[in-house]
Amino acid sequence: METGAWGAGAIVRDSHGNLVGALAMRAPSRISVLATELYALKVEISFALDASWVPLEIESDSLHAVSMVNSEEECLAAEEGLVDGVRCLLVSSASPAVRYTPHQANAAHRITRFSLRDQILSCWLDVGPLWLMDAVYDDWHVPTVD
Q: 3-class DSSP state for residue 7?
C-alpha cells in the first residue's frame, strides 16, 4: 500500500440487509480523511443511481461529512466541491438527507481496505467474495445491548 493512498467503498443493501451491489476503488490521493468520506458518499450515490436502485436510504459513519452534506448553509470549506456534488446527487436520488449511522462491523471499511490492495475498480452485484458477504452480514446483524 503506497503512502497517502486512500480507498472508497460503497455497499448497497436491500431492506433486509442483503447485498445488492458493492464497489471498491482508489480515492484520489493527497486529500483529507473528510474529503475521502465525502468522495465515498458521492461514489456510493452515483453507483446506486447508475444502477437505478431507488429509492435510496443513504448512510455514513462520518458525522462531520453527514453534517456538512445535510446543512442548508453554503459550504465554505475546502471540501465545498465534494459537498455540492453530494447535495446535487441527493436531489437526483429524491433522498432527503444522509443519515449518520455508526457502524461496528463496518463492511464499507473492509471493502475500502480491499481497494487499497487491489489496483483496479472492483464491482459486485448480488453476491461477492466470502469476506465481503461475511462483512455485510456482520454489519447488518450487529447485536444490540439493551
A: strand
| Total domains, the chain | 1
Of 119, 112, 116, 121, nearest to 139 (Cα)?
112
CB atoms within 10 A of CB 9: 25
- Asked if residues 70 and 97 have their Cβ atoms less than 8 Å apart, the reply is yes
For residue 24, give the CATH number of its domain. Answer: 3.30.420.10
Instruction: List per-block mean pLDDT (blocks of 10 residues) for the chain, which spans 146 residues.
Output: 68 86 83 88 90 86 93 92 95 86 74 80 90 84 52
Crossing angle of helices 80-93 and 33-50, in 10° steps, is: 20
C-alpha cell at 11: 455497499
| Integer Cα distance of 24 and 116 in angstroms | 9
Q: What is the pLDDT of residue 141?
A: 63
* Cell numbers standing for residue 139: 454489519
What per-residue confidence (pLDDT) applies to 74?
93
Residue 140 lies in a domain: no
| pLDDT for 105 | 61
